[in-house]
Amino acid sequence: NEATLGVPGRMARAHSLTRIGALHAAQDSTGAARQAYGEALVVLHALADDEAKDGARLPKDAALPQALMRVYAAIGDLHVAAGEGEAAVAARQQQVRFAEAVAACEPGDSDVDPELSWAYNQLASLLQQLGQIPQALGMWQRDLELDRRRVATAPDDSERAWDLSISLNHVGDALLAMEQAGGFLVGDAKEI
Q1: What is the chain's alpha carbon radius of gyration, rounded to the nearest angstrom?
Q2: Do the Cβ atoms of 161 and 151 come closer than 8 Å?
Q3: Verdict on whether the full-model pTM lies above 0.90
Q4: Distance between CA 22 and CA 77 in Å, rounded?
């Protein structure tokens, strides 16, 4: 019974299942990877449900949403590799949801921002590949705002400046793609 393991034991079980899923994915055993990731999600969502019911009993830290973010990222990778666009988008959206939850648990933590940026980028790239340019642009813009905040807190950090330049390129590419599709004129854009 999962509940008898306690929170640390259940988190450890979910972590083990996630690692098993990654091993199966690395060996191109997609079915076994999906099963392991699915079992990890069951454990993690049960913990999230427990946290929602009894917040005083469970810690309100980033460990649970971070674990969920990573499992959804891995599931998204499987769907992308299988060419399952809608399922990949759904998994990437969950990845973003939980990356944002991690950031909310640890506001101002500069170690969290790259994971959130990574989640935005993965979803935006997928949406753009699927031709969903307006939605991709929205994700790129969220990443741009994140990078602007990061540069504002450390203007001399060349890595953050580089990330900002890449975000500006992504937004520009999405705007250009929209203009070429006839859905938007770049000249009508507000300041990026």
Answers
A1: 19
A2: yes
A3: no
A4: 10
Residues 6+ apart with CB under 8 A from 22: 33, 74
Give, in order, the Cα–Cα distances in Å from 31 to each of 23, 36, 73.
12, 9, 16
Cα separation of 44 and 15, whole Å? 9
CA 143/CA 160 separation, integer angstroms:
12
Amino acid found at 4: T
Per-residue pLDDT of the chain (192 residues; tens, 9 = 90+): 566 778 889 999 999 999 999 999 999 999 999 999 999 999 999 988 887 776 545 456 789 999 999 999 999 999 999 999 999 999 999 999 999 999 888 877 777 888 999 999 999 999 999 999 999 999 999 999 999 999 998 999 999 999 999 999 999 999 998 887 665 544 444 444
